[in-house]
Amino acid sequence: MIAMPPLVSLRSVSRTYRTGAVAVAAVRDVSFDIEHGEIVAIMGPSGSGKSTLMNMIGLLDSPSEGAIYLDGMDVAHLPEDQRSGLRAQKIGFVFQSYNLLARHNAIENVALPLVYCGLGWKERMSRAARSLEAVGMLHRAQHFPKQLSGGEQQRVAIARALVASPSIVLADEPTGALDSRTGADVLALFCALNRGGQTVLMITHDPRVAAHCSRTVRLQDGQVVADQVHPPAAPKRVMAL
Description:
This protein is α/β, with parallel strands linked by helices. It has seven helices and ten strands. A six-stranded mixed beta sheet has the order 6-7-8-3-9-10, sandwiched between helices.
């Protein structure tokens, strides 16, 4: 039987930003894999290169050096039209600030990524409803972001990330704007999704968030200083927020 390649592979990846004659190395010679079905934390202090690394894995940025493979395909330097197509098909994003559109209700926000998949309105609404149901938010489908709590907005953002059935969900400080109780519920939701087979990568500076993952990759000054596998903390609950 042919072995399945890792979902994501980074090989000697570096990213340097230049302003005039000044060069800043944000990521330096990083190599690791993410397997299908893993839940992984990328952890480090501010300025360690976490977000730069996430942007490259999410095909929002390209490395200055090295290679990035997604499902065995070298994606590091593809043209933007191919990168945007792969983002729409294979990558879901969840941000600390939710990034919901204020003039659209919850189901419309969730359906938005499907526009780039070429689906008609009826199919987009059907899939968005199923995605909202998966995160316990179908009853709030017609509500606008300002009518939702922070935890509810983050659940809608997670539903949006899941709606196109991505290969991987990238979550950038997903509990950073939430109180501890609501953050625990959102983490429990990510854990439940992962138990269902969803690959998740969380970017965080918080060891309490990383503890819910089965593996933690630690960055310091743009370099990997540790890559540890550990039993994930038991999620406390998943409740209606």
